């Protein structure tokens, strides 16, 4: 607009100059020409200044536009980053909520299975114990007729069924993290190598077994017997996933789970672990199956082909040991189960547990306790009667009580008692640990052997036996009871 105005200003003097030139050509009188030329010069200078002003303003507008585009770009990136963070937070929250629901479900199932296992252990102690006593008495008969043989086979079958029930109960306790563990320093390489023959016999010739053992492997802190049981469970599961044969690989390695990995998993602590991987080349699992694989009683096998407790036992053992278990699988591509066990440092070496009794000296056998006086404390009458019968048949003298106060009174009345055999969970005002403490205060040299079918109690904390505790888990047989007592007395 400014250029248009200035253009008009210079056009008028130019038109007048042209008119004056035409008049001079006709010989007509004209006004002085200098005024028009000056006006043209002034207008031209003004026009040049206006052009420069326009260019400056165009440059300012361009810079403003560039700055605006830069700010819009930065704001767009900020909004995109904020949106990404919100999406990540929402995803993380959903994952955490799903894990919390899964954890709560597993905890609820664990409490239920723990209570069921406790009741079953008492019942199985009675069943297994009395079957063993009946089998022994049947074997003492001089007459061996077809009838006694049939009775013997029936007893043997009943014992086999009860033993299987005991194994299921143990797996329930493992899943609910209530089995008593005796962790120690474990060389995973040596343990895996030592299981090679057992695995080959168990899995059969169709399964190729390979072990990849890491050099410089740290020691793990775990119960070696339960670790062997877990690895055997994983190997059997892998075999079942390879019905036409395949390859099983067991690897060991040092591993570190960082904060980022632990943050997305409520039940994982960041730190150093000993890793044992069990991989197969089988059918694999879908994502839906993987999310439920550790649940008890969940199985993809046909009815009657599996209990659904193998992987749940592995999961419970890993968690109770302070470790972690994870499954990686794709349909048709096989599966890998990773078992993380806490690393044991030299400064953390545990003291020898009281339950790790040395074998009895040669010749002592089960008759070491003959003549010993044992105070049996058990609030379940059938279990108490079985324990008394088993001990008396082995030549022990027994005194029985159903609660703590009665046991203390009997202990005072019978100074000849040499060993206290007590359940931990007792009816009445005292539990077994409190009874033992009161008894030892009176008789410091008294031997004490605990038993229980439920491990959330006074002698087991965080799934581990207290130091110096002698323990016999339920269900137990007469021979197991006598062997443990004979070792204590020896």
From TrEMBL:
Compartmental location: Membrane
Cited PROSITE patterns: HAMP (PS50885), HIS_KIN (PS50109), RESPONSE_REGULATORY (PS50110)
Record domain HAMP: where: 8-59
Ranges for domain Response regulatory: 373-489
Domain Histidine kinase: 115-345
SUPFAM superfamilies named among the record's database cross-references: ATPase domain of HSP90 chaperone/DNA topoisomerase II/histidine kinase, CheY-like, Homodimeric domain of signal transducing histidine kinase
Stored Gene3D superfamilies: 1.10.287.130, 3.40.50.2300, Histidine kinase-like ATPase, C-terminal domain (3.30.565.10)
EC numbers on record: 2.7.13.3
Keywords, comma-separated and alphabetical: Kinase, Phosphoprotein, Transferase
Modified residues (4-aspartylphosphate): 423
Known catalytic reactions: ATP + protein L-histidine = ADP + protein N-phospho-L-histidine
Enzyme class: transferase
Protein's name in the database: histidine kinase
Organism, as annotated: Falsiroseomonas frigidaquae
């Amino acid at each position: 607009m400014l250029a248009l105005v200035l253009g008009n200003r210079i056009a008028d003097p130019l038109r007048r100059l042209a008119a004056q030139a035409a008049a001079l050509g006709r010989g007509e009188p004209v006004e002085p020409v200098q005024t028009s030329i000056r006006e043209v010069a002034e207008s031209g200078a003004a026009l040049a200044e206006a052009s420069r002003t326009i260019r400056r303003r165009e440059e300012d507008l361009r810079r403003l536009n560039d700055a605006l585009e830069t700010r819009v770009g930065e704001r767009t990136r900020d909004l995109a980053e904020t949106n990404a963070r919100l999406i990540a937070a929402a995803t993380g929250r959903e994952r955490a909520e799903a894990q919390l629901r899964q954890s709560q479900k597993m905890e609820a199932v664990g409490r239920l299975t723990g209570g069921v296992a406790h009741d079953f252990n008492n019942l199985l102690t009675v069943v297994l114990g009395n079957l063993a006593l009946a089998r022994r008495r049947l074997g003492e008969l001089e007459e061996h007729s077809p009838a006694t043989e049939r009775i013997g086979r029936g007893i043997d079958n009943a014992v086999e069924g009860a033993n299987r029930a005991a194994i299921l109960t143990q797996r329930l306790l493992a899943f609910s993290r209530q089995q008593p563990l005796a962790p120690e320093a474990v060389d995973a390489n040596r343990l895996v190598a030592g299981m090679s023959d057992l695995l080959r016999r168990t899995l059969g010739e169709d399964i190729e077994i390979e072990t990849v053992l890491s050099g410089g492997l740290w020691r793990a802190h775990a119960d070696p017997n339960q670790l062997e049981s877990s690895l055997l469970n994983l190997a059997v599961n892998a075999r079942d996933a390879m019905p036409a044969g395949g390859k099983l690989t067991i690897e060991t390695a040092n591993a570190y789970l960082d904060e980022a990995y632990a943050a997305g998993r409520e039940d994982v602590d960041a730190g150093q672990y000993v890793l044992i991987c069990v991989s197969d080349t089988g059918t694999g699992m879908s994502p839906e199956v993987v999310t439920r694989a550790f649940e008890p009683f969940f199985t993809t096998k046909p009815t009657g082909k599996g209990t659904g407790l193998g992987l749940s036992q592995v999961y419970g053992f890993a968690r109770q040991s302070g470790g972690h278990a994870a499954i990686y699988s794709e349909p048709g591509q096989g599966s890998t189960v990773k078992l993380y066990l806490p690393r044991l440092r030299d400064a953390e070496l545990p003291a020898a547990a009281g339950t790790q009794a040395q074998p009895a000296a040669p010749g002592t056998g089960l008759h070491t306790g003959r003549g010993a006086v044992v105070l049996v404390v058990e609030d379940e009458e059938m279990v108490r009667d079985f324990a008394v019968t088993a001990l008396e048949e082995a030549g022990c003298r027994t005194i029985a009580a159903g609660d703590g106060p009665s046991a203390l009174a009997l202990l005072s009345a019978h100074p000849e008692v040499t060993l206290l055999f007590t359940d931990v969970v007792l009816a009445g005002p005292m539990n077994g640990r409190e009874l033992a403490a009161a008894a030892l205060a009176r008789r410091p040299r008294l031997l004490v052997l605990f038993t229980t079918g439920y491990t959330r109690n006074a002698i087991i904390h965080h799934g581990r036996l207290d130091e110096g505790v002698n323990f016999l888990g339920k269900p137990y047989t007469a021979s197991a009871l006598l062997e443990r007592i004979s070792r204590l007395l020896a």
